[in-house]
Every structure is written in C-alpha cells, then in structure tokens.
Batch of 4 targets.
Target 1
Amino acid sequence: MTSDENWSPVEPGTLHELNRQLSTDKSAWTRRGAIAAVLTASAGGTWFATRPTGPGGITCLDLVAVGKEYVAGTLDADTIAKIDIHRSQCFNCDSHLKRLEAHAKSV
C-alpha cells in the first residue's frame, strides 16, 4: 500500500466552506480541535506506516527501540555499525543515546 492510497480528492472549495461554517458556529473551537486531532493522528499513522529508512539503514523508531541494548553493548556488530552511522547524521537520536549513556554511567 502506498501513501497515495490513503488520500482521496475533494471538490474545490470544500475545505474553505468547512472552515467558513466552523468559523460562524459557536461550538466551532471544540470541533476545530477535534478535527485537528483527527487529521494529526491520521497523518502520523500514515507516516509511521510508511516511514522511510533513515541514515545507516535504520529508522529513528528502530534505533530508540534498541537504544538500551546499544548502550549496554549487547547488539551485534552490524546493528552497532548502523546505529553509529545513523547517530552521526541524526541530532535527535544522538542526543537520545547520549542521555542513555549518561544514565548508564550514573547507575
């Protein structure tokens, strides 16, 4: 399944009309929040289902899942090499692993 299958076209002006209706309704703010939550959740779900492989051939989510094992040194050499490449190019994952390493040293 491709990400294009998750989208369907709407008639021109549909979203503008929806926005106009919500703007004039007294409970619009509540509905706007609900709509934003649904759109955010569905977009996030689509991204997770189709997430691309990151640097080093490993995704950020996969790296986080094995972070403790990485810090403990219990992973195989191939996975460690992938993580080393990934963290050298991904600030967020590098920061995450540094926090895990600092915590491991303090325990």
Note: The chain has a mean pLDDT of 78.
Target 2
Amino acid sequence: MAIADDSAAIWQRVIHFDEELSPAAARALLKLRFSERDHALMNELSAKARAGTLTPEEQSQLDTFERLGSLLDIVHSSARRAEEKAQEGWGRFALSAISIGRR
C-alpha cells in the first residue's frame, strides 16, 4: 500500500518543538533567510523555468530551493505562533498588574 504525502506535510510533523519556544528563540528563527545571492539565483532559475530553458541540474537546484523555502515557511510560522503566544501572556500579565494597581 503506497502512502502519498507531500514534503511540506512531512516537514510540519518533523518540525515540532517539544517545549514552547522562548521569545528570543522565536526571533532567532525568524531571522533565518536565504541570502541575497540565493534570491538572485532563484530569480534567474525561475526566469529560465518560465522560458523553458532549465537544464536538469538547474531544475534540481530550483526544486531544492522550493523545498527549503517551504521548510523556512514552516519554521517561521511556528516562530510567529510562539511570539504571539508570548505576547498574549504578557498582555494578560499587564492587565493583571493594572487591575492590582487599581485596588
């Protein structure tokens, strides 16, 4: 029995943090990016793909960039959720402190 699964779904299962990310860890993960050189190369490869002139090696390289881009999206999404959760916690803390100060 063959099981169909795309790599993004697999990566989502792999990139699971057992504990909550600290705000500092989340910010560090959000800084992970492709370099300017890689962006330029991706643009070049994409243009060649649209023109239908990619070599098999270039197609493989473009596929790799796409998979890594999906991986970065998943990591960034997890980091943003961790930051939002931390901000919600601080918001509740601040409201509690305001309420206590009014008593």
Note: The chain has a mean pLDDT of 82.
Target 3
Amino acid sequence: MTSKPLDEANQTGGIRMQMKRNLILAVVTAAAFSLGLLAAQATSQKNMNDWSYSKVKKMMSNPQTAKKVGMMAKKNGVMLMGGMSMGGRPVTMKGELTGADCYLSSGDHGHEHALCAKACVSHGGPIVFLGSNGTTYLVLPPKDGAHYPMQVLNDLGKPGVTVHAHEIDSHGIKALSVDSVQG
C-alpha cells in the first residue's frame, strides 16, 4: 500500500522532469533556429554570385523566395536590376524583328523565316531588330528581367513593323528596349 505523500512526491518529481525536458527542448530548438539564421546571414556577395543559373531561376520563379533573395542581395551589396527600366532615349523606328541566331550566322530573316525565328526565340534565342536605317539592334524587354511584350514575339519575321522603344548605345552594343510594336 502506498502512502498519499509518496504519490504526490512522485507526481511533483514527474512534473519537474517534464518541465526540464521542455526547457531543454526549447533551448535546443532556439539554438538550432539561431544557427540556421546565422547560416542564412553568412551568405556573402561572393557566395551569391557563385550560385548556379538553375538555382537562381528556381528561386526567382517563386515570389516568396525572390523577395528573400532580393533582401539578401541588398544586404550583401548585390544590385538586382530586375523590374527596373532599361533606360535609353525614346525612339520610334520601322524595320523587322527576327531571331538573332540565324540572322547573324546566315543572314536569314523575313516572312519566309518567321517560323524558324519564333522557334529559336521560344527556346531562349536572342532577338534583333533590323532597322530601316541599316542598323541592327539587340532587342531587350522594356524592363530588366521582364518578358518581351507578346506583340514582339508575334511579329517576329514580319517586315515593316514600327517599334516604340528606348535606344541604348552602351559598351559598343546598340540595343532597343521595346515597349510596343505596331504591325
């Protein structure tokens, strides 16, 4: 037969033991969380610049992780230009949008080459604008990191289009940041 004071002592000891376990668990959890934060904060500019393209693409495709990458980049002095205007002088020009790969390698362009230009660009190939002024321009989207306006893509290989763009002449490259196209 057990006495009542002994049962109470056992219960009190059990409660104390449970409290100690909870305290240890809380301390270990807090330490692990702090180490995780420290590891995340230890990301340096060099480490960020060494990330693979596939890692960056995956992170930037998710708005939540893209925001975190932006905050980490800012903290580490890495300037992300995504979403910023490309700058340049406003222009309106006539000419043709086409795929750069075939045009630069073999001179192919025009309506006969439109399907090929669209296929190449759909796989990430660059776009050029053949200006009626005789100048070939690299084509950029209206904002850094943005997609091309759909009209740019639809009018590939269509001679005589008018582009509303910003002309950029930088580091020996002439480029147009295309805002819109009229066909």
Note: The first strand starts at residue 89 and ends at 99.
Target 4
Amino acid sequence: MPRGLVRYQASGHSHFVTFSCYHRQPFFNNAARFELFIRCLEEMRRRFTLCLYAYVVMPEHVHLLLSEPKAAVLAEALHFLKLSFTKRLGAAGSFWQKRYYDRNVRDHREFVVKIGYIHRNPVKRGLVRSPEEWKWSSYRHYALREMGVVEIESEWTARDRERDLTGGAERIFLSQGMNPG
C-alpha cells in the first residue's frame, strides 16, 4: 500500500468503493460481461454477508455502496469479487487495476448523495438519457421496485423483511417510477 494511504475498515461505516478496468479500458463491452459481473456481485454479497445499497457497472469501472463484511475485511470481499469474475470470464491478461478507491460514508446525507451519484453516472457519461435505461445498476430497484439478481438493502427490503416476520399485509404502491434521488 502506498505511504500515507489509510483505509478505515471495521469502522461500522458504509463504504463508497470504485475500481477500474486495467488502464481504464472499456472491458465491459457486451451484455454477457455485465451480467456475469452482476452474478459475481451477488455471490460476493452472500458469501461475505454484507449489505449492498447501490451499484453501477460502467464500461470501464464499477461503483459500489456497501457495508463492511460480517467476518472479513472489505479488501477480501473485493478481491474475491474481482478474482471470481476474472476466472469465470477466462480472459487472458489483466482485467482489473490492482487498487481500488474506498471512502467511508459517515452520515445519512453523504449516503444519499453517493446513491444519487452512482445512479446518475451512466447519464452523466452520455450512455443513456435516464438512469432507468441503464440495466447494470441498482436504480431500477429504487425507482421501480424491480427485483434483480443482486439483493439491494433498502427501505423496501427492510420493510419486506419486517412484514414477513410479523405477518403483515402486502403494501400498496400509489405511484411507480418515483425518483429516489
């Protein structure tokens, strides 16, 4: 690790993480690669018992907003994710940059800002006109309550868990497509 770089893990904070493809090349260049990564992301979430709050997979990088793993450090979970994806892909050469950016998210305001940043990233880059058009993010979970391959920890999933535990009634949604941020 470079001198002066300190990672604050085992802090109880959520983490905003970014990692890139090797030399920021757009290696996510077909739907099959995006979908394989999403499956590996869900496998990491389950294996390391962590909460994933938001994600986006871009052509040359990935953003995640997640909790710390229950019985490991975040670096181990990210290593598992990158390695399991690369092995399944069977790509020759380097796919990922070795390092990753990690920022502890210390309060609710910053948490909401990071979710918005993640979900707007494909629009900002000009890949789509609106966030719901980008298939490889958690936006559709928040905006449309769409359940994808990756389980997103949100107010929706927390309320559903509570309902399942208490035997409460199904919730009725008055409006679909509300923008979460």
Note: The beta strands are 14-20, 52-57, 61-66, 101-105.
